[in-house]
Design goal:
Elements: E1 5-9, E2 12-23, E3 29-36, E4 43-50, H1 54-57, H2 82-87, E5 91-96, E6 107-108, H3 118-130, E7 135-141, H4 146-156, E8 165-168, H5 174-178, E9 179-180, E10 183-184, H6 187-193, E11 207-208, H7 210-214, H8 217-227, H9 231-234, H10 237-244, H11 250-256, H12 263-266, H13 270-273, E12 281-286, H14 290-302, E13 307-312, H15 326-336, E14 350-354, E15 359-363, E16 371-379, E17 383-385, E18 399-403, E19 415-418, E20 426-440, E21 446-454, E22 460-469, E23 501-514, E24 519-525, E25 551-556, E26 564-570, H16 571-576
Parallel strand pairs: 4-5, 4-7, 6-11, 8-12, 12-13, 13-14
Antiparallel strand pairs: 1-2, 2-3, 3-5, 9-10, 14-15, 16-17, 16-26, 18-25, 19-24, 20-23, 20-25, 20-26, 21-22, 21-24
Protein name: CocE/NonD family hydrolase
InterPro entries: AB_hydrolase_fold, CocE/Ser_esterase, Galactose-bd-like_sf, Xaa-Pro-like_dom, Xaa-Pro_dipept_C, Xaa-Pro_dipeptidyl-ppase/CocE
GO molecular function, one term: hydrolase activity
Length: about 575
């Protein structure tokens, strides 16, 4: 069993088995490295799987954790603290997915949706690890983001040796990971191609476009020409380049070419597969990236077995190498894998960090407290009020802004409305809705809403966000409830210029207490400021596709057009702020 090398990691020595070949059921082999203690006794294993390259993950042994905005932060070093895993008595097994790194096979499209399901490969990988003499037969998984999504895909296949998973910062509904309210997000480009603080996929000739594998060259040309008729796409140089040279940008090309939801994304949607999961699952997510909070909560509600939901504090980007949450993870695995009765299952199922008070609240479900949805109405003079506007549009004239394309200006125009200072702590926990009555002079635009907690000294902290592409305004009326809108995003319907429409934006889940003297500020634009108190904490590519045409926006908030925020006040807070 001793076939390993030893390396020094701080004060400790670690045994490593490099370039293991892991056979899949179709004959393809995946590459893996395994790290463990030097006494060579069998241990439970924690498996990490991604297309980012196992060698990149090994930097966790030599690189201290970096946080944004450090230029040494690399978003793809996500497999966890190797030395800590070994010290806790586990084997850390890091594998390259099919078609990436040193592994064989083809990786076609996202989650290999055009080839072998990645969950199937994960099943074979886990069972091979469990059968090795250096493993005691029990397996968990480790890693955030893509590694986290792989945990869900693996668990849905029900490999017998997988005893539990601990998922931090995963991405689930893949359409909502890439298009927020129908507005394209650029971060997946960075994760795949290596831009803006990410090394990207460990690409090989085995990584292929599902679109190019599915459609003929003539069909591709027709579809590309149609996509380039979108002025937002046509105005952005990178997208023009991607669409003209798809073989250099296989995975990103597939995303750009599929701007609406449907079968393309649903086939491997981890949330859809979640009801198959019956092993214990811990889901953790930090605030500040609302779409991943939304997906995490949706996944949590779909799970059938023992489960916990842990929502942490802002800011949104964890360190790289990823080391946060390890204490909780080892408690989880010590209980479910090692059989140590540490009382973790006697603790509440849901824990939520509340910004403002910086306290944790607990409960049996999300949200962990009873809430009452109340409306904050947009009023003249940039005010937010619990009372609606009594006057008509002839007296309460609409607010407005004109946004020129970012090709000709660096300035992003914004409208803002704020409450009066709160006179007592006011707590909100849950998701919400923004009902915006607007008139635009083009067939489409973006609505980007950001909510801030503004302190008496003017310092601001982002609380949550909402996005909606105007052409994606359709609601699923059966799934939509007060404060909880649902958009199918299965088609784009152009707007009739000059017509007043009601746009209902989904306000992503959040938890915040506004302290006495603080204000809630709602800020509306159709593009994002290039840099501000929030964006400076994100990688350079973590922004959304700007609108590529000039648009004039009129925002109505009169007695006939009650533009408002519908927000989840906890019942104590709702009673105290009448």
């Amino acid at each position: 069993m001793a076939d390993f090398q030893t390396i020094q990691a701080g004060q400790d020595r670690i045994a490593v088995r490099k370039d293991l070949r892991v056979p899949m059921r179709d004959g393809v082999t995946l590459a893996a490295d395994a790290y463990q203690g030097t006494d060579d006794r069998p241990r439970p294993a924690l498996v990490a799987l991604s297309p980012y390259g196992k060698e990149l993950q090994a930097l966790a042994l030599t690189t201290p954790p970096q946080r944004r905005p450090s230029p040494m932060w690399d978003g793809c070093v996500e497999a966890g603290d190797i030395a800590r895993v070994v010290k806790e008595g586990y084997v850390h097994v890091i594998g390259d997915l099919r078609g990436s790194g040193a592994s064989e096979g083809e990786h076609i499209g996202n989650y290999n949706a055009g080839g072998v399901p990645l969950g199937q490969d994960a099943y074979d990988f886990i069972e091979w690890v469990a059968a090795q003499p250096w493993c005691d037969g029990s397996v968990g998984m480790i890693g955030i983001s893509y590694f986290g999504s792989m945990q869900v895909l693996a668990a849905a296949e029900r490999p017998p040796s997988l005893k539990a998973i601990f998922v931090s910062g995963g991405h689930y509904d893949f359409y909502e990971t890439t298009y927020h309210g129908g507005v394209m997000w650029f971060m997946p480009r960075a994760a795949r191609e290596g831009r803006g603080g990410d090394s990207g996929w460990a690409f090989t000739d085995g990584v292929k476009s599902r679109m190019l594998e599915t459609y003929s060259p003539e069909e591709i040309r027709e579809r590309v020409a149609k996509r380039l008729r979108d002025p937002d796409v046509a105005a952005w140089p990178n997208l023009v380049h991607v669409l003209n040279y798809p073989k250099n940008h296989e995975a990103w090309f597939d995303i750009v070419m599929n701007e609406v939801d449907g079968e393309w994304y649903e086939e491997r949607n981890p949330v859809t597969l979640a009801p198959n999961i019956d092993i214990p699952v811990w889901l953790q997510i930090d605030q500040g990236r609302g779409w991943t909070m939304d997906g995490t909560i949706e996944l949590y509600n779909s799970l059938k077995g023992p489960k916990k939901l842990d929502i942490g504090p802002y800011p949104p980007m964890q360190s790289r190498p990823f080391v946060e949450e390890h204490d909780k993870m080892f408690r989880w695995y010590d209980y479910w894998i090692k059989g140590i009765d540490n009382g973790i299952m006697d603790e509440p199922a849901v824990t939520v960090f509340v910004e403002g008070t910086r306290e944790n609240v607990t409960g049996a479900q999300w949200p962990p407290k009873d809430v009452e949805y109340r409306s904050l109405h947009l009023r003249p003079r940039h005010r937010l009020s619990f009372e609606p506007e009594p006057m008509g549009a002839e007296y309460a004239a609409p607010d407005g802004f004109y946004q020129a394309p970012l090709t000709v200006t660096d300035k992003v125009e914004t409208l803002s409305w704020s409450t009066a200072p709160f006179d007592e702590p006011t707590e909100l926990i849950g998701q919400g809705a923004a009902h915006i009555f607007a008139e635009i002079d083009q067939p489409d635009t973006n609505f980007i809403l950001r909510m801030w907690d503004e302190a008496p000294n003017g310092r601001r902290r982002l609380i949550t966000t909402a996005y909606l592409k105007a052409s994606h305004r359709e609601l699923d009326e059966e799934r939509t409830t007060e404060g909880d809108p649902y958009h199918p995003h299965t088609r784009a319907v152009p707007v009739e210029p000059g017509r007043i429409e009601e746009y209902v934006l989904r306000v992503y889940p959040f938890a915040a207490t506004f302290l006495p003297g603080h204000k809630l500020v709602a800020e509306l634009s159709n593009d994002e400021p290039p840099a501000d108190a929030h964006n400076s904490l994100l990688p350079p590519d973590a922004f959304h596709l700007p609108v590529g045409r000039p648009v004039t926006h009129k925002i109505y908030r009169d007695a006939a057009h009650r533009s408002r925020l519908v927000l989840p006040f906890t019942k104590r807070a709702a009673a105290g702020n009448r």
